[in-house]
UniProtKB/TrEMBL annotation:
Belongs to the cytochrome P450 family. Its cofactor is heme. Keywords: Cholesterol metabolism, Heme, Iron, Lipid degradation, Lipid metabolism, Metal-binding, Monooxygenase, Oxidoreductase, Steroid metabolism, Sterol metabolism. Pathway: Steroid metabolism; cholesterol degradation. Pfam families: p450. The lineage of its organism: Bacteria, Bacillati, Actinomycetota, Actinomycetes, Mycobacteriales. One of its GO terms (molecular function) is heme binding. InterPro entries: Cyt_P450 (IPR001128), Cyt_P450_B (IPR002397), Cyt_P450_CS (IPR017972), Cyt_P450_sf (IPR036396). This is Steroid C26-monooxygenase. The keyword Lipid metabolism applies. GO terms for biological process: cholesterol metabolic process; lipid catabolic process. Transmembrane segments: none annotated. PANTHER family: P450, PUTATIVE (EUROFUNG)-RELATED.
Length: 412
Protein backbone atom coordinates (compact mmCIF):
# COMPACT_ATOMS: atom_id res chain seq x y z
CA UNK A 1 0.00 0.00 0.00
CA UNK A 2 1.23 3.51 -0.81
CA UNK A 3 2.65 5.54 2.06
CA UNK A 4 0.78 8.66 3.13
CA UNK A 5 1.74 12.15 1.97
CA UNK A 6 2.68 13.02 5.55
CA UNK A 7 5.07 10.07 5.69
CA UNK A 8 6.71 10.90 2.37
CA UNK A 9 7.10 14.52 3.46
CA UNK A 10 9.46 13.48 6.26
CA UNK A 11 12.12 12.40 3.77
CA UNK A 12 11.03 13.21 0.23
CA UNK A 13 12.43 10.81 -2.35
CA UNK A 14 11.35 11.56 -5.91
CA UNK A 15 12.48 8.10 -7.00
CA UNK A 16 10.02 6.38 -4.66
CA UNK A 17 7.74 3.98 -6.54
CA UNK A 18 4.59 5.60 -5.06
CA UNK A 19 5.21 8.66 -7.23
CA UNK A 20 5.14 6.54 -10.36
CA UNK A 21 1.63 5.25 -9.78
CA UNK A 22 -0.55 6.50 -12.67
CA UNK A 23 -3.65 6.25 -10.49
CA UNK A 24 -2.08 8.69 -7.98
CA UNK A 25 -0.51 11.43 -10.12
CA UNK A 26 -1.32 14.02 -7.45
CA UNK A 27 0.26 12.23 -4.48
CA UNK A 28 3.53 14.08 -5.03
CA UNK A 29 1.73 17.44 -4.86
CA UNK A 30 0.01 16.34 -1.65
CA UNK A 31 3.49 15.65 -0.25
CA UNK A 32 4.60 19.14 -1.27
CA UNK A 33 1.54 20.63 0.45
CA UNK A 34 2.59 18.95 3.70
CA UNK A 35 6.20 20.07 3.24
CA UNK A 36 5.16 23.70 2.60
CA UNK A 37 2.88 23.62 5.61
CA UNK A 38 5.23 22.01 8.13
CA UNK A 39 8.32 24.18 7.88
CA UNK A 40 10.00 26.43 5.34
CA UNK A 41 12.64 23.87 4.40
CA UNK A 42 12.22 20.12 4.60
CA UNK A 43 15.20 17.78 4.42
CA UNK A 44 15.84 14.91 2.05
CA UNK A 45 18.49 12.20 2.28
CA UNK A 46 18.13 11.48 -1.43
CA UNK A 47 18.18 14.58 -3.65
CA UNK A 48 17.21 13.44 -7.13
CA UNK A 49 19.91 14.92 -9.33
CA UNK A 50 23.01 13.65 -7.56
CA UNK A 51 24.10 11.93 -4.38
CA UNK A 52 24.96 14.61 -1.84
CA UNK A 53 26.65 13.49 1.39
CA UNK A 54 24.32 14.42 4.24
CA UNK A 55 21.41 15.08 1.87
CA UNK A 56 19.89 18.46 1.06
CA UNK A 57 17.33 21.03 2.13
CA UNK A 58 14.24 21.37 -0.06
CA UNK A 59 12.49 24.67 -0.80
CA UNK A 60 8.82 24.19 -1.65
CA UNK A 61 7.27 27.60 -0.85
CA UNK A 62 6.94 30.09 -3.69
CA UNK A 63 8.59 33.01 -1.90
CA UNK A 64 11.55 30.88 -0.77
CA UNK A 65 12.11 29.35 -4.21
CA UNK A 66 11.97 32.81 -5.79
CA UNK A 67 14.38 34.30 -3.24
CA UNK A 68 16.91 31.47 -3.61
CA UNK A 69 16.73 31.48 -7.41
CA UNK A 70 17.37 35.23 -7.38
CA UNK A 71 20.19 35.19 -4.82
CA UNK A 72 23.12 33.70 -6.70
CA UNK A 73 25.59 35.39 -4.34
CA UNK A 74 24.57 33.03 -1.53
CA UNK A 75 23.14 30.16 -3.55
CA UNK A 76 25.55 29.09 -6.26
CA UNK A 77 24.60 27.02 -9.28
CA UNK A 78 28.06 25.49 -9.31
CA UNK A 79 27.84 22.10 -7.59
CA UNK A 80 31.58 22.27 -6.87
CA UNK A 81 31.42 25.77 -5.34
CA UNK A 82 33.59 25.92 -2.27
CA UNK A 83 35.17 22.51 -2.92
CA UNK A 84 38.19 21.34 -4.90
CA UNK A 85 36.06 19.25 -7.29
CA UNK A 86 35.97 20.44 -10.86
CA UNK A 87 33.08 20.19 -13.29
CA UNK A 88 34.18 19.66 -16.89
CA UNK A 89 33.44 22.75 -18.98
CA UNK A 90 31.61 25.91 -18.00
CA UNK A 91 27.95 25.09 -18.57
CA UNK A 92 25.87 28.26 -18.38
CA UNK A 93 23.49 26.59 -15.94
CA UNK A 94 26.29 25.50 -13.62
CA UNK A 95 28.31 28.68 -13.27
CA UNK A 96 27.57 31.97 -11.54
CA UNK A 97 27.91 35.55 -12.76
CA UNK A 98 30.01 37.09 -14.18
CA UNK A 99 30.98 33.98 -16.18
CA UNK A 100 27.34 32.90 -16.49
CA UNK A 101 26.35 36.31 -17.91
CA UNK A 102 29.21 36.22 -20.41
CA UNK A 103 28.08 32.83 -21.70
CA UNK A 104 24.48 33.97 -21.74
CA UNK A 105 25.38 36.96 -23.91
CA UNK A 106 26.68 34.56 -26.54
CA UNK A 107 23.57 32.39 -26.46
CA UNK A 108 20.81 34.96 -25.83
CA UNK A 109 20.46 36.53 -29.29
CA UNK A 110 19.89 33.13 -30.81
CA UNK A 111 16.83 32.58 -28.60
CA UNK A 112 15.21 36.01 -29.12
CA UNK A 113 11.40 36.07 -29.42
CA UNK A 114 11.66 37.29 -33.02
CA UNK A 115 14.01 34.52 -34.04
CA UNK A 116 11.85 31.90 -32.38
CA UNK A 117 8.65 33.32 -33.91
CA UNK A 118 10.19 32.99 -37.36
CA UNK A 119 10.32 29.23 -36.77
CA UNK A 120 6.53 28.99 -36.51
CA UNK A 121 5.91 27.59 -40.05
CA UNK A 122 8.63 24.96 -39.67
CA UNK A 123 7.40 23.88 -36.25
CA UNK A 124 3.84 23.63 -37.55
CA UNK A 125 4.97 21.60 -40.57
CA UNK A 126 7.02 19.20 -38.41
CA UNK A 127 4.10 18.77 -36.01
CA UNK A 128 1.73 18.09 -38.92
CA UNK A 129 4.08 15.56 -40.36
CA UNK A 130 4.10 13.65 -37.05
CA UNK A 131 0.29 13.76 -36.93
CA UNK A 132 0.20 12.53 -40.56
CA UNK A 133 1.78 9.31 -39.27
CA UNK A 134 -1.54 8.21 -37.73
CA UNK A 135 -4.27 10.70 -38.72
CA UNK A 136 -6.03 8.39 -41.20
CA UNK A 137 -6.20 5.53 -38.67
CA UNK A 138 -8.53 7.22 -36.19
CA UNK A 139 -6.24 5.97 -33.41
CA UNK A 140 -2.81 7.14 -32.44
CA UNK A 141 -0.42 7.93 -29.63
CA UNK A 142 -0.04 11.62 -28.84
CA UNK A 143 3.22 10.90 -27.07
CA UNK A 144 4.62 10.55 -30.61
CA UNK A 145 3.94 14.25 -31.09
CA UNK A 146 4.89 15.42 -27.60
CA UNK A 147 8.16 13.51 -27.48
CA UNK A 148 9.34 13.85 -31.07
CA UNK A 149 8.41 17.40 -32.05
CA UNK A 150 10.75 19.24 -29.62
CA UNK A 151 13.69 17.02 -30.57
CA UNK A 152 13.17 17.46 -34.31
CA UNK A 153 12.85 21.23 -33.98
CA UNK A 154 15.87 21.54 -31.72
CA UNK A 155 18.17 19.29 -33.73
CA UNK A 156 17.11 20.31 -37.22
CA UNK A 157 16.52 24.05 -36.89
CA UNK A 158 18.62 25.15 -33.94
CA UNK A 159 21.55 22.86 -33.35
CA UNK A 160 22.04 21.70 -36.92
CA UNK A 161 22.54 18.12 -35.72
CA UNK A 162 21.26 15.30 -37.99
CA UNK A 163 17.84 14.14 -36.74
CA UNK A 164 19.10 10.53 -36.79
CA UNK A 165 21.02 11.48 -33.65
CA UNK A 166 17.85 12.27 -31.69
CA UNK A 167 17.16 8.68 -30.62
CA UNK A 168 20.56 8.02 -29.10
CA UNK A 169 20.82 11.49 -27.53
CA UNK A 170 17.39 11.05 -26.03
CA UNK A 171 18.27 7.63 -24.59
CA UNK A 172 21.45 9.02 -23.04
CA UNK A 173 19.71 12.12 -21.66
CA UNK A 174 16.94 9.97 -20.23
CA UNK A 175 19.37 7.58 -18.54
CA UNK A 176 21.50 10.47 -17.29
CA UNK A 177 18.44 11.86 -15.50
CA UNK A 178 16.39 8.81 -14.69
CA UNK A 179 18.85 5.92 -14.50
CA UNK A 180 18.47 4.13 -11.18
CA UNK A 181 22.12 4.08 -10.05
CA UNK A 182 24.49 7.06 -9.81
CA UNK A 183 27.14 5.16 -11.82
CA UNK A 184 24.68 4.50 -14.63
CA UNK A 185 23.70 8.16 -14.70
CA UNK A 186 27.29 9.38 -14.78
CA UNK A 187 28.13 6.93 -17.58
CA UNK A 188 25.21 8.27 -19.61
CA UNK A 189 26.40 11.88 -19.11
CA UNK A 190 29.84 10.82 -20.30
CA UNK A 191 28.28 9.05 -23.30
CA UNK A 192 26.27 12.15 -24.21
CA UNK A 193 29.36 14.33 -23.85
CA UNK A 194 31.31 12.06 -26.24
CA UNK A 195 28.48 12.05 -28.76
CA UNK A 196 28.16 15.85 -28.77
CA UNK A 197 31.94 16.19 -28.75
CA UNK A 198 32.11 14.22 -32.01
CA UNK A 199 29.36 16.37 -33.55
CA UNK A 200 31.10 19.59 -32.53
CA UNK A 201 34.42 18.31 -33.91
CA UNK A 202 32.76 17.65 -37.27
CA UNK A 203 31.18 21.09 -37.26
CA UNK A 204 34.40 22.88 -36.43
CA UNK A 205 35.88 21.46 -39.65
CA UNK A 206 33.02 23.08 -41.62
CA UNK A 207 32.91 26.69 -40.38
CA UNK A 208 30.51 29.38 -41.59
CA UNK A 209 27.16 27.95 -40.55
CA UNK A 210 24.51 29.80 -38.61
CA UNK A 211 23.19 27.37 -36.05
CA UNK A 212 23.60 27.12 -32.32
CA UNK A 213 26.81 25.09 -32.42
CA UNK A 214 28.33 27.59 -34.86
CA UNK A 215 27.32 30.38 -32.49
CA UNK A 216 29.17 28.61 -29.68
CA UNK A 217 32.19 27.90 -31.88
CA UNK A 218 32.41 31.56 -32.93
CA UNK A 219 31.59 32.87 -29.44
CA UNK A 220 34.21 35.01 -27.72
CA UNK A 221 34.59 36.29 -24.18
CA UNK A 222 37.04 39.18 -23.72
CA UNK A 223 38.43 38.55 -27.20
CA UNK A 224 39.05 34.82 -26.58
CA UNK A 225 37.19 31.97 -28.20
CA UNK A 226 35.38 29.54 -25.92
CA UNK A 227 37.40 26.49 -24.94
CA UNK A 228 36.38 23.30 -26.71
CA UNK A 229 35.01 21.80 -23.45
CA UNK A 230 32.79 24.85 -22.98
CA UNK A 231 31.40 24.56 -26.52
CA UNK A 232 30.69 20.85 -26.08
CA UNK A 233 29.35 21.28 -22.54
CA UNK A 234 26.89 23.98 -23.53
CA UNK A 235 25.79 22.18 -26.70
CA UNK A 236 25.18 19.12 -24.52
CA UNK A 237 23.21 21.25 -22.06
CA UNK A 238 20.97 22.51 -24.87
CA UNK A 239 20.34 18.96 -26.05
CA UNK A 240 19.46 17.88 -22.54
CA UNK A 241 17.48 21.01 -21.55
CA UNK A 242 15.49 21.11 -24.76
CA UNK A 243 14.35 17.50 -25.03
CA UNK A 244 12.63 16.18 -21.91
CA UNK A 245 11.34 19.45 -20.46
CA UNK A 246 9.08 20.51 -23.32
CA UNK A 247 8.15 16.92 -24.19
CA UNK A 248 6.91 16.17 -20.69
CA UNK A 249 5.02 19.44 -20.40
CA UNK A 250 3.32 18.89 -23.76
CA UNK A 251 2.53 15.27 -22.91
CA UNK A 252 0.67 16.47 -19.85
CA UNK A 253 -1.36 18.90 -21.97
CA UNK A 254 -2.39 16.17 -24.39
CA UNK A 255 -3.33 13.83 -21.57
CA UNK A 256 -5.26 16.57 -19.79
CA UNK A 257 -7.23 17.53 -22.89
CA UNK A 258 -7.85 13.88 -23.81
CA UNK A 259 -9.40 13.31 -20.39
CA UNK A 260 -11.23 16.65 -20.08
CA UNK A 261 -13.35 17.00 -23.24
CA UNK A 262 -14.97 20.20 -21.94
CA UNK A 263 -11.55 21.88 -21.68
CA UNK A 264 -10.58 20.54 -25.11
CA UNK A 265 -13.74 21.95 -26.67
CA UNK A 266 -13.21 25.26 -24.90
CA UNK A 267 -9.73 25.59 -26.34
CA UNK A 268 -11.11 24.96 -29.82
CA UNK A 269 -13.93 27.48 -29.32
CA UNK A 270 -11.60 30.10 -27.85
CA UNK A 271 -8.30 29.93 -29.75
CA UNK A 272 -7.07 33.15 -28.12
CA UNK A 273 -6.92 31.21 -24.87
CA UNK A 274 -3.91 29.20 -26.05
CA UNK A 275 -1.03 31.35 -24.69
CA UNK A 276 -2.59 31.61 -21.25
CA UNK A 277 -3.56 27.93 -21.22
CA UNK A 278 -0.01 26.91 -22.11
CA UNK A 279 1.38 28.99 -19.21
CA UNK A 280 -1.11 27.39 -16.88
CA UNK A 281 -0.25 23.88 -18.01
CA UNK A 282 3.43 24.60 -17.39
CA UNK A 283 2.60 25.93 -13.94
CA UNK A 284 0.27 23.07 -13.11
CA UNK A 285 2.21 20.06 -14.33
CA UNK A 286 5.09 21.02 -16.63
CA UNK A 287 7.53 22.49 -14.13
CA UNK A 288 10.81 21.03 -12.91
CA UNK A 289 10.78 19.20 -9.57
CA UNK A 290 14.01 20.45 -8.13
CA UNK A 291 17.35 21.90 -9.20
CA UNK A 292 20.33 22.23 -6.90
CA UNK A 293 22.04 25.23 -5.37
CA UNK A 294 25.14 25.18 -3.17
CA UNK A 295 25.29 27.58 -0.23
CA UNK A 296 28.48 29.64 -0.55
CA UNK A 297 27.96 32.00 2.42
CA UNK A 298 25.90 31.47 5.56
CA UNK A 299 22.53 33.09 5.08
CA UNK A 300 19.10 33.21 6.68
CA UNK A 301 15.94 32.70 4.65
CA UNK A 302 12.43 32.45 6.10
CA UNK A 303 13.86 32.02 9.61
CA UNK A 304 16.18 29.18 8.59
CA UNK A 305 19.97 29.52 8.59
CA UNK A 306 21.76 27.84 5.73
CA UNK A 307 25.41 26.98 6.29
CA UNK A 308 28.18 27.26 3.72
CA UNK A 309 28.61 23.99 1.79
CA UNK A 310 25.01 22.80 2.22
CA UNK A 311 22.86 21.92 -0.78
CA UNK A 312 19.36 23.26 -1.38
CA UNK A 313 16.92 21.76 -3.86
CA UNK A 314 14.76 24.51 -5.34
CA UNK A 315 11.49 22.85 -6.21
CA UNK A 316 9.79 25.02 -8.83
CA UNK A 317 6.97 22.49 -9.31
CA UNK A 318 6.10 22.66 -5.60
CA UNK A 319 6.34 26.47 -5.58
CA UNK A 320 3.89 26.58 -8.46
CA UNK A 321 1.28 24.81 -6.35
CA UNK A 322 1.59 27.28 -3.47
CA UNK A 323 -1.98 28.21 -2.63
CA UNK A 324 -0.89 31.54 -1.13
CA UNK A 325 0.14 32.71 -4.61
CA UNK A 326 -2.12 30.68 -6.91
CA UNK A 327 -5.70 30.43 -5.62
CA UNK A 328 -7.04 26.98 -6.50
CA UNK A 329 -3.45 25.93 -7.14
CA UNK A 330 -4.36 22.25 -7.49
CA UNK A 331 -6.66 22.96 -10.41
CA UNK A 332 -5.61 23.61 -13.97
CA UNK A 333 -7.41 26.88 -14.73
CA UNK A 334 -6.95 27.47 -18.45
CA UNK A 335 -7.66 31.18 -18.29
CA UNK A 336 -5.71 31.88 -15.09
CA UNK A 337 -4.63 35.51 -14.83
CA UNK A 338 -1.57 36.94 -13.02
CA UNK A 339 0.17 33.64 -13.52
CA UNK A 340 3.68 34.54 -12.37
CA UNK A 341 4.71 30.91 -12.19
CA UNK A 342 8.28 29.74 -11.67
CA UNK A 343 8.10 27.03 -14.33
CA UNK A 344 10.97 28.66 -16.20
CA UNK A 345 12.81 29.54 -13.01
CA UNK A 346 13.79 33.06 -11.94
CA UNK A 347 16.85 35.24 -11.59
CA UNK A 348 19.96 35.05 -13.72
CA UNK A 349 19.41 31.42 -14.74
CA UNK A 350 15.84 31.93 -15.93
CA UNK A 351 15.20 29.53 -18.80
CA UNK A 352 17.02 30.47 -21.97
CA UNK A 353 14.68 28.37 -24.09
CA UNK A 354 11.35 29.63 -22.71
CA UNK A 355 10.35 31.36 -25.97
CA UNK A 356 11.10 28.21 -27.92
CA UNK A 357 9.37 25.94 -25.39
CA UNK A 358 6.22 28.07 -25.39
CA UNK A 359 6.09 28.13 -29.18
CA UNK A 360 6.62 24.38 -29.57
CA UNK A 361 4.05 23.68 -26.88
CA UNK A 362 1.48 26.08 -28.28
CA UNK A 363 1.85 24.89 -31.86
CA UNK A 364 1.75 21.25 -30.74
CA UNK A 365 -1.56 21.81 -28.96
CA UNK A 366 -2.97 23.98 -31.77
CA UNK A 367 -2.23 21.47 -34.52
CA UNK A 368 -3.61 18.51 -32.57
CA UNK A 369 -6.80 20.41 -31.72
CA UNK A 370 -7.16 21.53 -35.33
CA UNK A 371 -6.59 18.16 -36.95
CA UNK A 372 -8.28 15.83 -34.48
CA UNK A 373 -10.75 18.02 -32.58
CA UNK A 374 -12.64 15.15 -30.94
CA UNK A 375 -9.64 13.19 -29.66
CA UNK A 376 -10.04 11.38 -26.37
CA UNK A 377 -8.26 8.68 -24.44
CA UNK A 378 -8.71 5.29 -26.14
CA UNK A 379 -11.18 3.27 -24.06
CA UNK A 380 -9.45 0.33 -22.38
CA UNK A 381 -5.94 1.54 -23.21
CA UNK A 382 -3.64 2.67 -20.40
CA UNK A 383 -1.55 5.82 -20.76
CA UNK A 384 2.02 5.28 -19.61
CA UNK A 385 2.99 7.69 -16.85
CA UNK A 386 6.52 8.43 -15.70
CA UNK A 387 6.40 10.12 -12.34
CA UNK A 388 9.84 9.45 -10.83
CA UNK A 389 11.63 12.37 -12.40
CA UNK A 390 12.35 16.07 -12.14
CA UNK A 391 10.32 16.30 -15.34
CA UNK A 392 7.22 14.14 -15.02
CA UNK A 393 4.90 13.27 -17.87
CA UNK A 394 3.32 10.66 -20.10
CA UNK A 395 5.34 8.35 -22.30
CA UNK A 396 2.26 7.00 -24.04
CA UNK A 397 -1.14 8.67 -24.58
CA UNK A 398 -3.28 6.34 -26.70
CA UNK A 399 -6.18 8.27 -28.25
CA UNK A 400 -9.12 7.76 -30.59
CA UNK A 401 -10.62 10.40 -32.85
CA UNK A 402 -12.64 10.74 -36.06
CA UNK A 403 -10.28 10.34 -38.99
CA UNK A 404 -10.60 12.96 -41.75
CA UNK A 405 -13.15 12.12 -44.42
CA UNK A 406 -11.62 10.82 -47.63
CA UNK A 407 -12.47 12.39 -50.95
CA UNK A 408 -11.46 11.43 -54.45
CA UNK A 409 -7.73 11.83 -54.81
CA UNK A 410 -6.75 11.91 -51.19
CA UNK A 411 -7.50 12.85 -47.66
CA UNK A 412 -9.38 15.98 -46.74
C1 LIG B 1 8.59 23.55 -20.81
C2 LIG B 1 9.88 23.49 -21.10
C3 LIG B 1 10.97 24.01 -20.21
C4 LIG B 1 10.99 24.19 -18.86
C5 LIG B 1 9.88 23.91 -17.87
C6 LIG B 1 12.31 24.73 -18.53
C7 LIG B 1 12.70 25.10 -17.26
C8 LIG B 1 13.89 25.70 -16.95
C9 LIG B 1 14.26 26.18 -15.63
C10 LIG B 1 13.40 26.06 -14.39
C11 LIG B 1 15.49 26.73 -15.72
C12 LIG B 1 16.28 27.40 -14.58
C13 LIG B 1 17.43 26.55 -14.13
C14 LIG B 1 18.03 26.99 -12.82
O1 LIG B 1 17.51 27.90 -12.17
O2 LIG B 1 19.03 26.39 -12.41
C15 LIG B 1 15.93 26.59 -17.08
C16 LIG B 1 17.16 27.00 -17.57
C17 LIG B 1 17.58 26.74 -18.84
N1 LIG B 1 16.83 26.24 -19.89
FE1 LIG B 1 14.92 25.65 -19.79
N2 LIG B 1 13.05 24.83 -19.67
C18 LIG B 1 12.28 24.41 -20.73
C19 LIG B 1 12.64 24.37 -22.06
C20 LIG B 1 13.90 24.68 -22.53
C21 LIG B 1 14.30 24.60 -23.91
C22 LIG B 1 13.41 24.20 -25.08
C23 LIG B 1 15.64 24.96 -23.94
C24 LIG B 1 16.58 25.07 -25.12
C25 LIG B 1 16.56 24.42 -26.21
C26 LIG B 1 16.04 25.28 -22.59
C27 LIG B 1 17.30 25.69 -22.24
C28 LIG B 1 17.65 26.14 -20.98
C29 LIG B 1 18.99 26.60 -20.63
C30 LIG B 1 20.19 26.65 -21.56
C31 LIG B 1 18.95 26.98 -19.29
C32 LIG B 1 20.09 27.54 -18.45
C33 LIG B 1 20.06 29.05 -18.45
C34 LIG B 1 21.11 29.66 -17.53
O3 LIG B 1 21.61 28.97 -16.68
O4 LIG B 1 21.38 30.86 -17.70
N3 LIG B 1 14.96 25.11 -21.77
N4 LIG B 1 14.92 25.97 -17.82
Amino acid sequence: MAQTAAHHAQNWDLRHEDFNDPSEPDLLYDVYAVMRERCPFAHTDTPFLSDVPGGAWVATRYADCLRIAQDWEHFSSNPAAGSADHVVGDLVVMVDPPRQQQLRRILNPYFSPARMKALRPQIAAETDSLIDGFITDGVGDLADVAWRQPGIVLFKYLLGIPTEEIGVCFELTDTALNGTAEQERLAAWAGLYQRVDALVATRSREPGGDDMIDVLLRGEIDGEKLAHVDVVGNAMLLVQAGLETTANAMSFAFHHLATHPGERDRMIAEPDLAPRAVEEMIRYAGSIHGLHRTVVKDVEVDGHTFRRGETVVVNFAAANRDESVFPGADHCVLDRRDNRHLGFGAGVHRCLGSNLARLEFQIGVERVLHRMPDFELRPGAEPEFHGNSITRGYRSIPVVFSPPRRNVGGVE
